Amino acid sequence: MRILVTGRNGQVAQSLAECAGTSHDLIFADRPGFDLADPASIERSVQEVRPDLVFSVAAYTAVDKAESERDVAMAVNGEGPGVLARAAYRIGAPVVHLSTDYVFDGSKDGPYSEADPVAPLGVYGETKLAGERAIQASGATYAILRTAWVYSPFGANFVKTMLRLAGDRDELTVVEDQRGCPTSALDIAAAMLHVANMWATDPNRGANAVYHLAGSGDTNWADFARRIMALSAPRGGPSASVRGIPTSAYPTPARRPANSRLDSTRFADTFGFVMPCWHDSLEPVVERLARAA
User: Fold this and answer.
1) CB of 124 closer than 8 Å to CB of 259
2) Distance between CA atoms of 154 and 8, rounded to whole angstroms?
3) Cα 143–149–150 angle (5° rounding)?
4) Over the chain, what HEC string results?
5) What is the C-alpha radius of gyration for the chain, rounded to an integer number of angstroms?
6) Does the CA dihedral 18-20-26-31 come out positive or negative?
7) How far apart are CA 44 and CA 37, in angstroms?
């Protein structure tokens, strides 16, 4: 299967490159030739590659910066995916698109299901929701996968930040009143490739729906950081003590949902792929990063 992957250097794109091996022909589209803020470049790339499937994983992910760069964030997250999906529709290619827990306001007590009402707290969530809706209106066959708290051995993420800071400090202060489901980008990549394999023989399986795709189990940011340290220290990596603080003690331009927990049951039931427990997926990532430190 010939798959166009948007972006090249993001966590999920790099994870797809590692996980796919030779099972699929992945073509990575990135700037300057491909730019989600440039509709002409999107159309041109899709026409040149003519993929069997599109993995839409590139995004504007600077959550705080988006508050002051709304137009840029909307162009990349809201409008670009719609252009991409319409171009894919014209050549008959389905789209698997990554979205986010930030489409919710975090006020629910339990994990969010796909049926729960959306209510983004900030610009990033608003633009990602706009992207979902643009894809749904494009005519293309699609699966929208909302994920959360993504980490990996690649790019910039919470795990790498914690380990970097632990190399310089004895104690880290980390927010403890926000809960979510840490999710390995390698697991996301495996799930997306699983969908590709299923669609190769059953193109209607689970098509035209929204799914949640996050690590099994949940935690808060401070306990997440503590687990990272507990895994890093015995492997010779950096480690520090972690002191939990309330969100109010760490103000940011963008508001974060207090509850980012996602229920991934629908994806598991539809595609037969259960996301691993975040504890299990975190360990090999920390081991890789500790070895490289």
Assistant:
1) no
2) 11
3) 70
4) CEEEEECCCCHHHHHHHHHHCCCCEEEEECCCCCCCCCHHHHHHHHHHHCCCEEEECCCCCCCCHHHCCHHHHHHHHHHHHHHHHHHHHHHCCCEEEEEEHHHCCCCCCCCECCCCCCCCCCHHHHHHHHHHHHHHCCCCCEEEEEECCEECCCCCCHHHHHHHHHCCCCEEEEECCCEECCEEHHHHHHHHHHHHHHHHHCCCCCCCEEEECCCECCEEHHHHHHHHHHHHHHHCCCCCEEEEECHHHCCCCCCCCCECCECCHHHHHHHCCCCCEHHHHHHHHHHHHHHHC
5) 19
6) negative
7) 13
Q: Which of 102, 124, 142, 211 is catalytic?
A: 124
How many angstroms separate the most distant Cα atoms in the chain?
A: 56
Burial of 129 (0-12, 13-18, 19+ CB in 10 A): buried
Are the CB atoms for 157 and 100 separated by under 8 Å?
A: no
What residues contact 33, with CB distance under 8 A and at least 6 apart?
Answer: 41, 44, 45
Class of the CATH domain delimited by 2-156+182-216+261-277: alpha beta
* Chain segment 5-57, per-residue pLDDT in tens: 999 999 999 999 999 988 789 999 999 999 999 999 999 999 999 999 999 99
142 is catalytic: no
For residue 124, what are its two tokens?
């990033």
Indicate whether this model's pTM tops 0.70: yes
